[in-house]
Amino acid sequence: MPTYLFEAIDAATGKEIRDTVDAASEAEAQATIRSMGYMVTKLKVGKSKAGKGGGKGKKPGRTFAIGGVKGKDLTLFTRQLSILQDAGLPILRSLKVLAEMQKPGRLKNSLLDVCDEIEGGSTLSEAMSKSPKAFDRLYCNMIRAGEAGGALEVILRRLSEFMERSESLKRKVKGALVYPVVVVCVAVGILTFIMLKIVPQFKKIFDDFGSTLPDMTQILINISTWVSNYWYLIPAIPFGFNLIIKAIKLVPYGRFGWDLFTLKMPVFGQLVEKNILSRSARTLGTLLSSGVPILEALNITKETSGNMMFERLFAKVSDSIRDGEAIAKPLKTYSVPPFNIVAMLFWTFFCPGIGALLYLTRYKQSVVDDLVVNMVDVGEESGELDTMLYKVADTYDEEVAVLTESLTSLMEPLLIIFLGGAVGFIVIALFMPLIKLIQDLS
User: Fold this and answer.
1) Do 274 and 310 contact (CB within 8 A), yes or no?
2) Does the CA dihedral 370-371-377-380 come out positive or negative?
């Protein structure tokens, strides 16, 4: 006999009832529920026990998927779901429509799982929390806040706007990095080809004449010989360096040192710092405006910051709030980084000679500007903290965009100078002995 899940209104008390009933058919189930004194509002067949316990095989409609969900795919899904909710479609129907539209992959599998959970009686936030590879804590908590406040369509709209802004900022930063990365890769390829194929031919000519080579030419030949013997180190060096950084980051103190270095590194440190501040302010503002409690919102913001210095900062702020303090004071107090020997070693490696001195003069610089602290303070006083956090995020979004464009504009002439210098060095080094040979022959 099938089990039916039902939602109903108690005619006597007016309370909403959710329960199950065993019946041979839907009509019999409705009759049984009415005999209890309930008015049926929703009725569906529940999962059978066999279906729950047995099937170890793949569920229908699912495909094999590796990894998580792409940010742009989740952003598009959230915007579409918000539109369907504004149109008044039931949530289950909306999810099934969007699941059918998705390409086979992690997101489609997760949406099908969410639909199954909702049909089994779970709420949307509960169902999504069981698919963490698609929906993170930020996403699930905002959905939970929307359900509790009865404004799911409003929360989905805010969430989609938040995700669209974040994706837009990521695209700007990645787009700005494409040009220099491509130019550097092509330049390394061309210079490697010259060292492997062109310079050895000139070396044979010079050896045949047996003349003394200028220092510049000898340096070029030595470089060519090294590249010919150890060419495999060219891709291995950055790969090995990346492995070393990952190994250091396995230890919390090492990860903290690397994160501090990335915040204060020359040229790119400001970009990283402002990007994290923008994302964190927008995340916290979105959670607070959606009705998420402040301590939970700070905890989620800490987890999504992606930098251990900011994780430490938000944890300290959260502890201070528990002790009865406001946000602004601990935000300013704990935004000054502590001394970290790993960070100093990275500075010494990347800036030989003056790296340690630069670190000692800069490590106590706050990672949160006074502008942020003052706006948070005003937001707390006026009761408009979420609005102020949005303004902070908008300000830093603009600064990140301007800084990205400035760095791109700066890197173009620097790359041209580097390539011109490298090519000029090779040409001069190769032709100086030829000119000397021609003069001797004359």
Assistant:
1) no
2) negative
Q: How many other C-beta atoms lie within 10 A of the C-beta of residue 140?
A: 20
Give the predicted TM-score (pTM) of the model: 0.67
Cβ-based neighbour number of residue 378 at 10 Å? 15
The confidence score (pLDDT) of residue 309 equals 92
Ramachandran area for residue 88 (φ above 0: left; ψ -120 to 50: alpha; else beta): left
Residue with tokens 């603009």: 398
pLDDT band at 60 (very low <50, low <70, confident <90, very high): low
Residue 38's CB is within 10 A of a number of other CB atoms, namely: 22
Distance of CA 302 to the CA centre of its chain: 13
Q: How far apart are CA 166 and CA 91, in angstroms?
A: 25
The predicted-structure confidence for 321-337, as pLDDT tens digits, reads as follows: 888 888 888 988 899 99
10 Å Cβ neighbour count for 49?
9
State how far the alpha carbon of 201 is from the alpha carbons of 76, 216, 218, 223, 435, in Å.
Answer: 56, 17, 14, 14, 17
Distance CA(63)–CA(329), nearest Å, equals 51
